[in-house]
User: Fold this.
Amino acid sequence: MAKKIPMRQCIGCGEMKGKKELLRILRTQDEEVILDATGRKNGRGAYICPNAECLKRAKKSKGLERSFKMKIADEIYDSLTKEIGIFEKSVRNAGNGDEGR
Ligand SMILES: [Zn+2]
Assistant:
């Protein structure tokens, strides 16, 4: 029997992807919006591809604001962009990990 992968929709491009391929953005109880790298914190979550382009799209379409039902400040997008940039790099490095053997 094939294992069913839980699919989530990216708030940027709208594509359905496996949970592990997406990053989770979390709204905490204090109305903070953070990138939840572990995916284990409590709160309202939204999913996004690990790339800055999707975050840009989410900002334009207000996908994140709709998911969280709150206004998202530019500074929050800025810090999310930075954090996603780090993931973007690590994904890329993992993709061609032939070096250092
Ligand atoms: Zn996306």
